[in-house]
Amino acid sequence: MSVAFRRESDDEHKEPEFELPIPVGPNLVTPRGLRLLGEEVARIEAAVAATEAEEERKKLQRRLRYFHTRHATAEVQPAPGDAVVAIGSRVTFTLNGGERSLTVVGHDEADPARSHIAFSAPLARALMSAEVGETLEYQGREDAIEIVATRADPEVQA
């Protein structure tokens, strides 16, 4: 039979589905971050059990593999002190003449809308290990950031 008359399956033309990318480096989290990872694993497991559609189940199982890996590799960081910026710190600083506050957290609990940024974000990397009163270089400026205050954020420590 000629190849022209052979019916090819639809699967031959689909894009391959890759695993969700896991951020490079250690999986540092706050106590809240570990709890959120566990809750997400439980939520997805329940959704997989309740889903009958094969395609939807595959998508959920893919997400489940990601969150299982993130939960299993999580390294909970100790509560930071009030002297130095670390993961779990609520930092108040001045940048470009304006005062801002944010909390440094792990990758999976980052939420910029709530002022929670991942420790690997450029701004967080600039702030890490800084002390109150210190001025820091950022985006090519020597004195772009001044640390006003830092303390352990109780929201992420629970």
UniProtKB/TrEMBL annotation:
Stretches for region Disordered: 1-24
Gene3D superfamilies the record matches: Transcription elongation factor, GreA/GreB, C-terminal domain
Classification via InterPro entries: GreA/GreB_C_sf (IPR036953), Tscrpt_elong_fac_GreA/B_C (IPR001437), Tscrpt_elong_fac_GreA/B_fam (IPR023459)
Alphabetically ordered keywords of this record: Coiled coil, Kinase, Transferase
Pfam families recorded: GreA_GreB
One MF term in the entry's GO annotations: RNA polymerase binding
SUPFAM superfamilies from the UniProt entry: FKBP-like
Stretches assigned to coiled coil: 34-70
Residue span(s) of domain Transcription elongation factor GreA/GreB C-terminal: 83-143
Compositionally skewed regions (Basic and acidic residues) per UniProt: 1-17
GO biological process: DNA-templated transcription elongation; regulation of DNA-templated transcription elongation
Identification of the protein by name: Nucleoside diphosphate kinase
